[in-house]
Amino acid sequence: MALPEALVREFEELVSHYPQRRAALIPALHRCQEELGGWISPQAMEDVAGFFELQPVEVYGVVTFYPMFRLQPPGEHVIGVCHNVSCMLRGAEDVIAQLCELTGAPVGGTSKNKRFSLARLECQGACANGPMLDMDGVYHEDLTAARVSEIVAEITGGLE
After folding, report:
1. In sequence order, which ranges of 16-91 are alpha helices (DSSP H)?
2. What is the mean pLDDT of each run of 10 residues along the chain (160 residues)?
3. In terms of domains, do 93 and 149 share one?
4. CA separation (Å) from 94 to 86, 99, 158?
5. How many folded domains does the chain comprise?
6. To 10 degrees, what angle do helices 92-103 and 145-156 make?
7. Segments forming the whole domain that contains residue 123
8. pTM to 2 decimal places
């Protein structure tokens, strides 16, 4: 697989804004993840390495270092729960356990039916309103068990 031509053109524009070509690697990886199925495949890493004139292991090192990049296709719905101190003290672990039960997704993985991916997130800046979760890019704060069930049902149209 080669990178789509439109993405390569976007990368060419992107690198023109940086003093060194490789400085645009992280934004380019974000675009790859957005455009290529929500994850960064080994082939995509090789293609990006070629574009940036890097070794594939250098791109792999960046992808595996940053938690916002995925090495596997995500579920249809991506859920992240903040587990830093404020959220943890206000019940984040209970929220995570409930989400595992409701969705069938293990923490750091995807449900067998591929509908849900669940992850622990680092601080999301909602410390005064924890626990909080991000589902499909939408923040939900001041969570209770009842509210978690409602959110999952609202966004998915109910669980099967």
Report:
1. 25-35, 42-52, 56-65, 85-89
2. 90 96 96 94 96 97 92 93 93 96 94 94 91 92 94 76
3. yes
4. 14, 9, 20
5. 2
6. 40
7. 77-156
8. 0.78
